[in-house]
Amino acid sequence: MMTLLIIVLIINIQADFRINLFLFIFLFFGFVFLFQWLYLKKKTSQLQAMQIQSELDLLKSQIDPHFYFNTLNNLYGLAKRKSDQTPEAILKLSQVMRYVIYKGKESKVSLEEEIDYLENYIELQQLRTNKDIKIDFKKNIFINHVEIAPLLLIIPLENAFKHGVDTVLNDAYIDIILIADESKIQLEITNNFEIDSANEFTGIGLENLKKRLQLIYKDQHELKVTKNNGIYKFDLLIHQ
Amino acid sequence: MTCIIIDDEPIAHHIIEDYAKELKDLTILKSFYNAVEAISFLNTNKVDFIFLDIKMPKLKGLDFIKMLTHPPAIIITSAYEEYALEGFELSVTDYLLKPFSFERFLKAYQKVAQLKTNISNTNVKVDAEDQSIFIKGDKEIHQVNLNNIIYLESYGGYVKVHLNTQKPIVVHQSLKFFETNLNTNFIRTHRSYIINKTYIKSIKGNLIKLQDNDLPIGKLYKIHINKLLEN
């Protein structure tokens, strides 16, 4: 009788101990997994942020280097003939470079700075050619201070020169309209291009722009590009 | 020596013009802002070489070279480095990266001048009527009627002249020389071949059938073949 009691007791104790042990192991691993999950989650979001940043940096760096070499060649030619245009052109180029090198790193700049950059770029481009290019830049800015991601608006302007003006023999034009108010920034660029050369248009610049817009102004922008009868039209709307 | 400039940027013209003034025996015959205008000029005028930009409206520099059946020597002037390989495949003489110094310009000029002296040495001489050619090979000077040349093949620093009358003659000369100096009956079809049009039996895909053999058509020279059909 006594022995039976002891056996039952032992079984009971063991069962109790087993349950405790299971509970302990369960909780232990539960915590381990929970911490691991939290850690991983934090790590992934860090990685994602880093990835977005490096993606943005990479996309930004795709600005055409040939512009600089062509401009330097023109400066060289001007300086060689001791042209009065030389100092002014050097200043323009240094402003462009300063903007790209320093401001380009910031996440936002004032719209005015971006506009100055576009205007300097246009003037340097005009130095390159003896063609009669009609460039009309209309600015309708209705607010005092508005910010924008740097080096965005240059991409369509660069394209208008590279795939438009540079392909047309005569009567090249670029119409630029920039509007900024409380609710939006809108850029519209219209230019003509040589239809034969259209096949060369790879659109890497435009693809990068799209990716950047997606990363910076997700669900906050509208982009429309149309190509019709030798006329290219770029229309970007950024909601504030 | 004579040359022309093809570049869509006026300041690029100024630089070359100023450099050229320093060289007594270099004359710029004409300057063009696009390659299309230069083509008609080259049809009626002979020049020793061309300063050629790559990125230009309407017709790009490299496409322009491909269109010429007998291109003169070419010095590319460009801000783009990445076309150098294709340029040299089209056997341009030199490639100047903008901006370039007078010293670098001079070097390119001397390369062209060197090329010209190589040509004027007496290994090959085309007669005035374009009927026959004197070729120095195997210590013997052969007179060959142009009609008897089936095709020319690049052979290291030599050219193998395949004939329908006798075995091939090997001559110390560049294929480029023949390309510039033979008449329009001869077309460059490959980096290594120039073919006498008269002997083409058929063209199928990338092969040209001649009397006894088939020769490949180079990618870059396809445009010459297409021109055969246009005329």
UniProtKB/TrEMBL annotation, chain B:
<feature type="domain" description="Response regulatory">
    <location>
        <begin position="2"/>
        <end position="113"/>
    </location>
</feature>
<keyword id="KW-0597">Phosphoprotein</keyword>
<feature type="modified residue" description="4-aspartylphosphate">
    <location>
        <position position="53"/>
    </location>
</feature>
<dbReference type="InterPro" id="IPR051271">
    <property type="entry name" value="2C-system_Tx_regulators"/>
</dbReference>
<feature type="domain" description="HTH LytTR-type">
    <location>
        <begin position="133"/>
        <end position="231"/>
    </location>
</feature>
<protein>
    <submittedName>
        <fullName>Response regulator transcription factor</fullName>
    </submittedName>
</protein>
<dbReference type="InterPro" id="IPR011006">
    <property type="entry name" value="CheY-like_superfamily"/>
</dbReference>
<dbReference type="Pfam" id="PF04397">
    <property type="entry name" value="LytTR"/>
</dbReference>
<dbReference type="InterPro" id="IPR007492">
    <property type="entry name" value="LytTR_DNA-bd_dom"/>
</dbReference>
<dbReference type="InterPro" id="IPR001789">
    <property type="entry name" value="Sig_transdc_resp-reg_receiver"/>
</dbReference>
<dbReference type="Pfam" id="PF00072">
    <property type="entry name" value="Response_reg"/>
</dbReference>
